[in-house]
Input
Amino acid sequence: MNQQLKTIAFILCVIFLHLEGYAQVNADGTIDTGDKYENAKLEYLESPEVVEERFGWWSDARFGMFIHWGLYAQDGCFWKGQDGRSEHMMRNLQIPIAEYEKIATEFNPEKFNADEWAEIAKNAGMKYLVITSKHHDGFAMFNSPSHDYNILKQTPWKRDPIKELNEACKKQGIKFGVYYSLGRDWHHPQCNSVDGWRSNVWDFPEEEKKDYSIYFSEKVKPQITELITQYKPAIIWFDTPELITKEQSTELLGLIRKLDPDCIVNQRVGNKLGDYAVREQKIPKGGEPQPWETCMTISKIWGYHKEDHVWKSADSLVHSLVDITSKGGNLLLNVGPTGEGVIRQPSVELLKEMGEWLQVNGEAVYGTTSSPVGKFDWGRCTKRVENGNTTLYFSVFNWPANGKLVIPGITNDVIKSSLIATDKSLETFYSEDGLTIELPKAAPDKLASVIKIEITGTIN
Ligand code: FHN
Output
């Protein structure tokens, strides 16, 4: 594609994402998530040992399920026949609160089955799950004694999906987490945002009179307290910190640490704080100076949009998972269940394919760390160190036609070299170009084939 076409494509992408109303694509191509510190190095308030102690399981987990589920799913992000375009439907269509609240009176997801959702995550090889407990529309998808605008009080369904999913995840041995929109709440009159750009200015037009600290005290702190004391989530996944001050981010983190020191908090608690960095819909070119996670949609839109049939492919999803792992990160892959409480079949099938691949090749992902030999145009490398010995996993996306791979930068002795999928031993030898691995003609796995190389000592 020539430069002119690339420029046109980029401009169209910027327009599209802006119109989608849930992300502003900046001139440099980054996505505006309401967090001005998106790419900052985090400032930890505790010793590295304390952070590592809280964190250990998370880094080994590598792969989690993200779920965006709320009133916007009732008619697939449509309202009175109008396309709300995404989970930002209330803002995109400037739906008055009094009208939006009526959606709750019809919300009755009778097909919701927490055990089914947890099983889909388990079968996909996912080790943790994060679900929207309150998105920007301000509606609590959980039992919130402090605010009646919640799923038990406002819907005919009268069940608590956060409670049910928490219990279902425990049965499957999956860590449970909750998403909470920190700086955007279109139901609260005091929740303002940067330049008013992501506020409810149709019910509450006087943006300049809003005081975030009132919303912070009246809603954020009581609901975060309820989420921790009622469900003890392993993760609180904050989103869009917007105008929260450093003092408020610090106070909120202190509250969470007091209520549950084991609870992991992402960087969108705001102001360069939190346990790990978030990258949205993008994978960094290299590693990150701290633990990090890419969150990504399995289709185009986070919430369920009834005309969103743009599904990613199984191989691209596996390649993303391996690419992220090879850079020391985690993948949080999102599904948007329907208003009836169903995870759509294309998502289920893609997740099943990922799970089948991980069943065979999971040791190249879980508990591994960044590649010590960079990345390759044909695939990625991940590393495991155990009992003083190192295992390198080369996940091959594009199988070489010439029947060999040459890996520069390794000089260690090779103990064993094999294909994980078939356990077939492979011949290796050193040349001035590096370690050469001789391969069979055909790749054993259509999504990605993993070569396991056990070497003596370590390699950094
Ligand atoms: O505006 C939200 C969006 O709806 C979605 O929840 C994503 C998920 O990371 N976060 C915000 C956009 O950055």
